[in-house]
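Example 3.2
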Amino acid sequence: MKKNFILILFLILTSNITFSQILHKPTENTLLTVQEKKDLPKFPALTSTGASVGFNLGVASVEGEVGFAISAFAELKARDISFVPQANYWNVKKQTNFELAALARFYLSKRPLIPYLDAGLGINFYKSGDNNFSKLSILAGGGIELTNLGTSFNLLVDGKYKLIINDKGNL
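Structure, written as tokens:
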């Protein structure tokens, strides 16, 4: 079951659906009368929106223990706000956690160094010996996005605080 779920999640995160529309705008070389040029529709300036996918590699710190973390994400941008669905996994000694999360990312400035804040919710599948559960989590964090490192490559320096809501106390 878990293998099928991970496969479906991988296919969703790596799939690409594209829709485009070409708006025909006559060039200056087109022979139009002055009145015809005035009657042309005005095209509004389009804002940059888009989608991207990526992965994270990092360090997990849980209750004073250190392990590794890996995740995959997609970012759906709309001006200064993004929706960021992601799948996260961390392992610290005998503790593991797989999480599906959705974040809202708020950008605080413009290029080339872009600070941002994140907030969102996740569903965690936690395992540690006899303590296995699935719980909701609250995520908060931020970071800096470094753009123009390549034609299609950005680097994010990112930090998150995750509060997994547990009945016996919080982890």
